[in-house]
Amino acid sequence: MVVAVGAALGVAAATSGGAPGPGPGLPARYEVVYRVANSSSGTAVTTWEVLQADGPFDVADLTYRSDPRAGAPPSGGSVSTFDALYDLHAGRLVAVSGRPPGMGSGAEGLVPELADLRRRSLAVPVGGPRLVAGQRCTTWRFAGPPVGPVARPSGGDHDDLCLSPSGLELAETWTYSGRVVLRRTAVEVLVGRSDPRVRVPAAPAASPPPSAVVHVGLPGPQGSFLAAPPPPPGFSSAGSVGVTAFDPTDTSRVADVSTVWAYRRGGADVTVEAGVGQAPWDDAGVPALSLHLAGLGGARSVLESTGPQIQVSLSGSRWVQIDGSVPLRYLAAYAGRLRLAAR
User: Fold this and answer.
1) What is the CATH number of domain 29-191?
2) DSSP secondary structure string for all residues of 97-123
3) What is the pLDDT of residues 57-84, one digit of tens each?
4) CA angle, 300 as apex, 144 and 28 as ends, to 5°?
5) Residue from 148, 177, 191, 167 nearest 287 by CA
6) Range(s) for CATH 2.50.20.10 in the chain?
7) Torsion over CA of 295, 299, 300 and 306, rounded to 10 degrees?
8) What is the rounded average pLDDT of the residues 111-116?
9) What values do phi and psi take at 198, rounded to 5?
10) Nearest-angstrom CA–CA distance, 341 and 321
């Protein structure tokens, strides 16, 4: 009860005194080349990584055995598109699955939610600003490498990320079991363009064949229980899709069916997914706070590596999930405008 009341008051305070803005957001297009020193095996191994994004949905996160600026080919990694995920195998991209629109694999939306991460004691600033690859960044300490819901710190393990004001991760130092196991440092940061020397394979123009786990079809199905959401202020529509997710342990069984509406603003995204069936989130052990939405009722907010997420459980196995690489108070104000479809 205390958590629910506190969260409701926090969101009310954050959204009072005028509509909240979406913040600066990630660049519309960028490329970061990292040098990675991995000591997890006890012996330092140096590799390279390239994170290249063209908007929030199209993201390549690739690894290289030597400096990609010298023309080395990628040796592994993944490429995300608006509705598909590909892995690199033997030098070529192989379709892994359809994917609901969302921030591409490897990209992060931590900066817009830093204030909330700090309020919830999920991240703390350490040290002052520094320059990495000619860019200014500030180091924040997390429990571990942020993937999915941001974990609450416990014990001495931690991951220090140096984040630029625009949201780019420029350096990482991961300490595990009392020793540094990984250092990842940007050596080249390009905004609005890419390095012509760096080889990044392009994803196929056509969508991959239906996956046994997730099938994404264009456009989204008609007749959702949720009224079509308006574009968030400052965002434009990127389209809608219908998603059928299957139980990964029994691919003959449908786990849920949903409609996803996607919006973009430069490198930032907001998505609204309304589904029937098994909700796509796991409540167990995930730090969350309760809030109330004017149109949908009770909800909970979770802070993820790609930005805040608002989860709504409704009757009849219906659910709504709102994600965005924007501040939580902006996402909560927008989520409050969502309504059920008229019957």
Assistant:
1) 2.50.20.10
2) EE--S-SPTT----GGGHHHHHHTTS-
3) 999 999 999 999 999 999 999 999 999 9
4) 60
5) 148
6) 29-191
7) -40
8) 97
9) -85, 125
10) 16
